[in-house]
């Protein structure tokens, strides 16, 4: 006997009030703890805006997805929008110059081959109800590590510019000298995904697993799907980090004011 989604989390006034309280707590803690990295960044405001945006976007998606899952054109448009938003979000987190659009490369490099392989092998049907959530998980994972890897690599290169110049003085090419600094820092972006995979079932029960159980699937099938999602996500994220580091090492993706040493 399976639980119903309604019994898990009823949608009522109590839920709405609790969400507002939790959002206020998050913003309040960020304010009183001074979690904004610099005066130009208002982290509490970003938290509030993110929460409000999430509510509005999920409400809109709830309506749009009904059309997208039953229409091929709608499915394609939905996936393109998901990809475009991910690229724009990652790009804005890394730089404000014209190179932001290059974040399309790390996001696409892992996601597109993985989704294509699923479709070609027949493991996933070309149906919106299945393709949209799987693609969303993979795109979201690629987005996260692209931002984390890119920021860490760019920060480290700015901080250790002297070491890059010293390595070049010893004969290393510009790309190789930058790579020696950027790659170790960027590799930390893989840690959240690794920890999630290592502790699955012990610390957390991820959404795909719980969702399938609530939908009536057997624990074995739910576990198999969740295992696939976690492993596919690690592959996508590893590719995204590798491509991000390569773009930064080759000085294709950089911040305003940065220059090749």
TrEMBL record:
Swiss-Prot/TrEMBL keywords: Membrane, Transmembrane, Transmembrane helix
Chief location bin: membrane
Entry keyword annotation includes Transmembrane helix: yes
Superkingdom, taxonomy of origin: Bacteria
Compartments where found: Membrane
InterPro entries in the record: UPF0014_fam
UniProt name for this protein: ABC transporter permease
Organism this protein belongs to: Streptomyces rhizosphaericus
Upper classification of the organism: Bacteria, Bacillati, Actinomycetota, Actinomycetes, Kitasatosporales
């Amino acid at each position: 006997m399976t639980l119903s989604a309604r019994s898990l989390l009823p949608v009522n006034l109590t839920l709405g009030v609790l969400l507002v309280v939790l959002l206020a707590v998050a913003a309040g803690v960020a304010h009183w703890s001074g979690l904004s990295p610099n005066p130009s960044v208002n982290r509490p405001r970003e938290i509030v805006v993110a929460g409000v945006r999430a509510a509005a976007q999920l409400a809109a998606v709830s309506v749009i997805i009904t059309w997208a899952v039953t229409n091929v054109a709608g499915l394609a448009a939905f996936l393109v929008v998901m990809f475009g938003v991910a690229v724009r979000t990652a790009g804005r987190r890394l730089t404000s110059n014209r190179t932001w659009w290059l974040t399309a490369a790390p996001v696409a490099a892992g996601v597109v081959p993985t989704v294509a392989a699923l479709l070609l092998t027949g493991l996933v049907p070309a149906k919106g109800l299945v393709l949209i959530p799987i693609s969303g998980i993979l795109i979201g994972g690629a987005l996260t590590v692209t931002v984390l890897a890119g920021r860490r690599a760019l920060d480290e290169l700015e901080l250790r510019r002297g070491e890059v110049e010293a390595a070049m003085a010893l004969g290393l090419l510009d790309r190789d000298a930058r790579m020696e600094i950027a790659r170790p820092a960027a590799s930390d972006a893989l840690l959240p995904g690794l920890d999630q995979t290592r502790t699955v079932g012990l610390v957390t029960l991820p959404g795909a697993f719980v969702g399938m159980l609530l939908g009536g699937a057997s624990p074995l099938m739910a576990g198999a799907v969740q295992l696939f999602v976690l492993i596919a996500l690690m592959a996508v994220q590893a590719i995204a980090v590798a491509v991000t580091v390569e773009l930064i090492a080759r000085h294709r993706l950089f911040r305003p004011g940065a220059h090749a040493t």
